[in-house]
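REVIEWER CHECKLIST
Item 1: Sequence provided? yes
Item 2: Single chain? yes
Item 3: Sequence as submitted:
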Amino acid sequence: MDNISRPTRGFLKHFMLKLISDKPRSGYEIMNIIEEISGKRPSAGSIYPLLQELEEKKFIKGETKNKKIEYTITEEGKKVLEELEKKQKDIIGSSISSFLRTYSTIFGDKEIEFVSKQIDFYNKISKFSIPEKIWIEFSCFRRNFFDLLISNPDEETKLWLEKILRNANIELEELKKKVKNGICDKNP
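Item 4: Structure as written out by the authors:
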């Protein structure tokens, strides 16, 4: 039997289904694409049993052409792929966040803990519909803030960043109170 772990097998099946959804492909072609992307060539013993499993589940259909089997995605396969794509961000985000949280707890790494909290934050807000203009402003603010922060700022720049953040937080706190009390002005 092949020595591929369950999570890797699941990812490979998802990846293979995605490749086949783009256009019909042979197992050999799939192995070449995986090697090109990852730098490691999967064995035929890894790929062909997964193709067989996908075919048995009727997610793909194999057809012999020019002495090789070309696989195409079925309607059922398209539905499964669509569901997987909807869930993938949650799965990847929670897996990465869980790993980082565990790592930061074990090793006491505050930077990794910060990254973990940022991922948790984005996982939470991704479930809400945020108006595009607000998201653009927030993204610009975040990018500018971190660009300045990682540029090894001098003391004066640090003080400006502190002041900007303090003022923004004061205004946000005031807005939260107004919204909570139902007295939010129509014009900012």
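Item 5: Key structural point noted by reviewer: The chain has three domains: 6-73, 86-128, 130-188.
Item 6: Recommendation: ____
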